[in-house]
Specification:
The chain is α/β, with parallel strands linked by helices and 232 residues long. Helices cover 40% and strands 20% of the residues. The protein is built from 8 helices and 11 strands.
């Protein structure tokens, strides 16, 4: 079955262009030029991925992203004409999985969509013949189960996006070892790391917030300054 993708962008030419390229790859595309109509559609329809423009005439993309994350975990890709790092960090911190700056090559958008969907399927759909296999880590009361894509902290389930779970799982796999931002990014995002990339930092900050980690002395995800992150 073809994956369903939502596009929300008030620039009709851009939305139409992305739609053409995605449809050519066999995706089902739903397109809106404002946030209110998009949110109403999301409430009653199943989606596999959303592409959200940051600047919209009514609701901004950040607000839509936050509303989606209240009940849904499918990947979200943000589009923006801005290049400021803080805008990017804000989007990633509130639950976005990727960020693309305008102008862009539509083939890049399609490639990013495929990458996010592969990761989403990998962590949310378990092969039935392996459902009985338990694959989990228990780290000081933080329990991660990869087969169930479930994470609990002291018995309470955490609401993690696929990216957040992937980061936590990778750090758990390398427990006791310092993992650099470069290694973590390339392992989780499956893309080449750039020196000015703040994506990992933004997601680590969001994870710590969900883990109720104190900023100065985190219990689970520790920062080794100048090197990377580790879980002990």
């Amino acid at each position: 079955m073809s994956e369903s993708i939502l596009i929300v962008d008030d620039e009709k030419e851009i939305a139409d262009l992305i739609e053409v390229y995605l449809k050519n790859d066999g995706y089902l595309v739903y397109k809106f030029y404002n946030g209110v109509d998009a949110l109403n559609f999301i409430e009653t329809n199943k989606l596999d991925l959303a592409i959200l423009d940051v600047m919209l005439p009514d609701l901004d993309g950040f607000h839509i992203c936050q509303k989606i994350r209240e009940t849904h975990f499918f990947p979200i890709i943000m589009l923006t004409a801005k290049v400021e790092d803080m805008d990017k960090i804000m989007g990633l911190t509130i639950g976005a999985d990727d960020y693309i700056t305008k102008p862009f090559n539509p083939l890049e958008v399609v490639a990013r969509v495929k990458t996010q969907l592969r990761r989403y399927v990998r962590y949310n759909h378990t092969d039935e013949q392996h459902t009985a296999v338990i694959n989990e880590y228990d780290i000081k009361g933080l329990i991660m189960n990869k087969d169930m894509h479930k994470c609990t902290l002291f018995g309470k389930e955490l609401t993690l996006t696929p990216i957040e779970f992937s980061i936590l799982w990778y750090l758990g796999e390398h427990r006791g070892k310092v993992v650099s931002s470069e290694e973590l990014f390339e392992a989780v995002w499956d893309e080449k790391y750039l020196d000015n990339n703040n994506t990992v930092m933004a997601h680590i900050a969001r994870l710590r917030e969900k883990l109720h980690e104190p900023a100065k002395n985190p219990k689970f995800i520790k920062t080794v300054w100048g090197v990377g992150y580790k879980v002990e």
